[in-house]
């Protein structure tokens, strides 16, 4: 259906809002990646089958006209609490069922939908307390889901459902009420800062692009979420694609661009599929294309799939990749706002930034500023992973403390471990330690302690994690992903990696720490792009916070966390050894000697620390230290 | 290794994405989807059609991780070694796969062209760590034993 005027759009939106009120009950099955892998799509199918078998009217997507009340049975986007999936929520009661199995579907329909009772065994329990309602669960209670608001509410493949939650109202307001200057003004006042990591004010970027004289301008969305441990943008692209498109359209209108590109990493095939579908729908309704809603504004959005290069998350590398070239950064200035895609002025923002735009346009800059601290307003989505109880996707107001995120929302450390550090900002960021627990998570507070918010991946580490090994891991990552264009990054990261490798292997030398810091300083000040400049950050930050671990590795050839395999020392307790000879037979380097029924001994010079003896000992006589 | 190239398919792909430099990556992706790798033999033809040099095509094909100039196995197993997977022990899973298939860091494809084992930086499935994918289908919470079972199942398919 082609919408030709503002009235058409209002009519369509009201139609689906009306249709939505007929869904007097909704069963929202999480179809996020985690829950799908645990069988949520089968649960969705089974629930639908049961409803139909019982003659209860139901629908998986909003209908054009709906006169009788129905049960909406929706496969929605990610509900966020991946740890206890598959999740099923019943609205309007807000009942959340966890770890649902196909066998539970009968009870859900019979007891909850038909009789309005709660199935106790499926509700969430924490410390002996039962939480039947989603909003009471600590994991959800402390969150503020704005950008991710629709993710667990609507069917993401349907533009009708997006209309029903007020979709494209912000775009309409921008076109017919605000006009381009006022849109930029609102974004500027709101102080929306780029969610991709740098935190550059979006309004400033948009103003600069609008000012450029060139008649051709581009809007580019960076969906190349490459930081290991981050998947917030994936969720927005997959679970609420229209919101992101709406943000890009508003940006296009405000800055005078006619084309937009979304660069999605190849590892996100579902995101590509959902965005392609959403763009097709927006074209069918005339929200993209020529003379949109009769305003004379033309805009089209294209998708470009990445081909596996982390560096393409860097602005100039990303635009080079869209142009079909090797994704290598170039020297700046000129900046992307002047010479971006195809050498034209370009607004380049990330997924979460664009997803914030409709909210600001609709509710106003002042409303947005009322959330979070003054210099970093709004919310931030974080992916909570690693050794934490509640892995998942969360969204909190900027300025929430690390303690609230890790303990109140995240539920603390897994397996009763102790909190040691959290890596924030991926391979470009740094680690925060117990002393930072009361630090506010926002752009400026983090910068002060040498970390950065990055794209928002929070990888939590317990006391069994070796920080030197973590630094080595990140350096290995950046070294692999270095594009090789500039010397400091290409050669420098390699040297740093070599030093870290020898430290974790027990061959560290005196002066290695100082050498690492010196290299780090040189690379940070001379590398060409952000990837190189921030590559040493994990090393600098772990040295700053855990210098004694580095020293133990180098001076005592000991790994305090007991994680570095090469630094382990295996011995046999003579009192416990029965002399069964099993360890000696399994040792790949014949380092174990002894006679039958007599305690055996490990020759430390021959031992390669593979741990085969420990794994094979039936008496627990092999000790690891 | 030579391969019979379906030039009709190549032409259709060129038509679909347009014979212009900015389509290079999309065209290579489509070709790789069909052949499982990029046969170098077609580069001269592509270069001419797109209007860029052969060196440019080669440059793009070797820059990006996802392109391969060598044939890959029927099952491409990508083991995630992102931060979350790494701290939840992805390395033993990788080691088991390599051990069972006789593969290593340098030899990534088995001789019978059945399996390719690669490491990827992050699949974005961190909530499911450690994760791996087989031809883009995700397998979560892997252990070395689960990896062995998976290989057994794939061999039987």
How would you portray this structure in words?
The complex is a heterodimer of chains A (about 625) and B (about 160). With about 625 residues, chain A is α/β, with parallel strands linked by helices. Chain A has 5 domains: about 20-135, Glutaredoxin; about 165-370, NADH-ubiquinone oxidoreductase 51kDa subunit (Rossmann fold, 3-Layer(aba) Sandwich), CATH 3.40.50.11540; about 380-460, Ubiquitin-like (UB roll); about 465-555, de novo design (two linked rop proteins) (Up-down Bundle); about 570-625, Alpha-Beta Plaits. Chain A has 23 helices and 20 strands. In chain A, the strands form 6 sheets. In chain A, strands 2-3-1-4-5 form a 5-stranded mixed β-sheet. Chain A has a 5-stranded mixed β-sheet with strand order 13-12-16-14-15, sandwiched between helices. In chain A, strands 10-9-8-11 form a 4-stranded parallel β-sheet, sandwiched between helices. In chain A, helix 11 (about 270-285) links the parallel strand 9 and strand 10 (about 300-305). In chain A, helix 3 crosses helix 4, helix 7 crosses helix 13 and helix 9 crosses helix 10 (about 240-255). Chain A is globular. Chain B has about 160 residues and is of the alpha+beta class. Chain B has 2 domains: about 5-65, Arc Repressor Mutant, subunit A, CATH 1.10.10; about 75-155, Glutaredoxin, CATH 3.40.30. Chain B has 7 helices and 4 strands. In chain B, strand 3 and strand 4 form a beta hairpin. In chain B, helix 3 packs across helix 4 (about 55-65) and helix 6 runs parallel beside helix 7. The model of chain B has no long low-confidence stretch (mean pLDDT about 90). At the A-B interface, helix 2, strand 12, strand 16 and helix 17 of A face helix 2, helix 4 and helix 5 of B.
């Amino acid at each position: 259906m082609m919408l030709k005027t503002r009235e058409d759009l209002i009519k369509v939106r009201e139609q689906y809002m009306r249709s939505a009120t007929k869904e007097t009950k909704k069963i929202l099955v999480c179809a996020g990646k985690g829950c799908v892998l645990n069988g949520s799509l089968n649960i969705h199918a089974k629930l639908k089958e049961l409803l139909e078998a019982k003659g209860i009217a139901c629908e998986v997507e909003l209908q054009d006209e709906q006169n009788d009340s129905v049960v909406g049975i929706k496969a929605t986007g990610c509900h966020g609490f991946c740890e206890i999936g598959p999740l099923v929520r019943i609205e309007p009661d807000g009942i959340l069922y966890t770890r649902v199995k196909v066998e539970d579907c009968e009870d859900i329909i019979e007891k909850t939908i038909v009789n309005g009772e709660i199935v106790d065994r499926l509700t969430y329990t924490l410390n002996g307390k039962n939480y039947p309602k989603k909003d009471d669960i600590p994991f959800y209670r402390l969150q503020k889901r704005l950008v991710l608001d629709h993710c667990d509410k609507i069917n993401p493949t349907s533009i009708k459902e997006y209309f029903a939650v007020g979709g494209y109202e912000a775009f309409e307001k921008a076109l017919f009420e605000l006009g381009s200057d006022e849109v930029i003004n609102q974004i500027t006042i709101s102080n929306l800062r780029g969610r991709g990591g740098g935190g550059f004010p979006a309004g400033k970027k948009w103003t600069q692009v609008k000012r450029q004289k060139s008649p051709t301008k581009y809007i580019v969305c960076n969906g190349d979420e490459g930081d290991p441990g981050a998947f917030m943008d994936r969720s927005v692209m997959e679970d609420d694609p229209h919101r992101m498109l709406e943000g890009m359209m508003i940006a296009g209108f405000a800055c005078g661009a006619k084309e937009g590109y979304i660069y999605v990493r190849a590892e996100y095939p579902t995101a590509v599929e959902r965005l392609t579908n959403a763009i097709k729908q927006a074209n069918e309704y005339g929200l993209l294309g020529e003379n949109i809603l009769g305003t004379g504004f033309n805009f089209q959005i294209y998708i470009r799939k990445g081909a596996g290069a982390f560096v393409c998350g860097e602005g100039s590398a990303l635009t080079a990749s869209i142009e079909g070239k090797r994704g290598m950064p170039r020297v700046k200035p000129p900046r992307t706002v002047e010479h971006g895609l195809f050498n034209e002025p370009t607004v380049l923002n990330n997924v979460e930034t664009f997803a914030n735009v409709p909210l600001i346009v609709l509710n106003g800059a002042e409303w947005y500023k009322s959330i979070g601290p003054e210099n970093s307003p709004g919310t931030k989505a974080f992916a909570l992973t690693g050794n934490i109880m509640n892995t998942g996707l969360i969204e909190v107001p900027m300025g929430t403390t690390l303690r609230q995120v890790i303990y109140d929302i995240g539920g603390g450390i897994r397996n009763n471990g102790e909190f040691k550090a959290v890596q924030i900002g991926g391979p470009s960021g740094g680690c925060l330690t117990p002393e930072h627990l009361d630090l506010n998570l926002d752009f400026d507070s983090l910068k002060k302690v040498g970390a950065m918010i990055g794209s928002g991946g929070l990888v939590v580490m317990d006391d069994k994690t070796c920080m030197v090994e973590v630094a080595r891991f990140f350096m290995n990552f950046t070294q692999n992903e270095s594009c090789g264009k500039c010397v400091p990054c290409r050669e420098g990261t390699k040297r740093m990696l070599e030093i870290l490798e020898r430290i974790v292997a027990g061959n560290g030398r005196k002066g290695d720490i100082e050498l690492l810091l010196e290299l780090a300083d040189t690379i940070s000040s001379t590398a060409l792009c952000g990837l190189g400049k921030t590559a040493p950050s994990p090393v600098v930050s772990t040295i700053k916070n855990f210098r004694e671990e580095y020293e133990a590795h180098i001076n005592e050839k000991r790994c305090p966390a007991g994680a570095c395999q090469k630094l382990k020392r295996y011995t046999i307790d003579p009192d416990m050894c029965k002399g069964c000879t099993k360890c000696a037979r399994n040792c790949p380097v014949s380092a174990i000697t002894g006679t039958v029924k007599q305690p055996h001994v490990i020759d430390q010079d021959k031992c390669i620390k593979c741990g085969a003896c420990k794994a094979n000992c039936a008496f627990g006589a092999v000790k690891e230290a | 290794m030579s391969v019979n190239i379906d030039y009709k398919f190549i032409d259709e792909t060129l038509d679909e994405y347009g014979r212009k430099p900015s389509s290079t990556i999309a065209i290579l992706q489509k070709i790789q989807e069909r052949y499982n790798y990029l046969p170098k033999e077609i580069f001269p033809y592509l270069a001419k059609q797109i209007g860029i040099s052969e060196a440019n095509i080669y440059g793009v094909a070797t820059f990006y991780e996802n392109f391969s100039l060598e044939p890959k196995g029927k099952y491409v197993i990508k083991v995630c070694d992102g931060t979350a997977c790494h701290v939840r022990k992805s390395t033993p899973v990788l080691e088991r796969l390599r051990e069972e298939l006789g593969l290593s860091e340098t030899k990534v494809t088995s001789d019978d062209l059945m399996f390719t084992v690669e490491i990827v930086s992050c699949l974005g499935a961190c909530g499911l760590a450690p994760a791996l994918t087989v031809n883009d289908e995700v397998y979560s919470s892997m252990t070395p034993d689960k990896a062995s079972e998976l290989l057994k199942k794939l061999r039987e398919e």
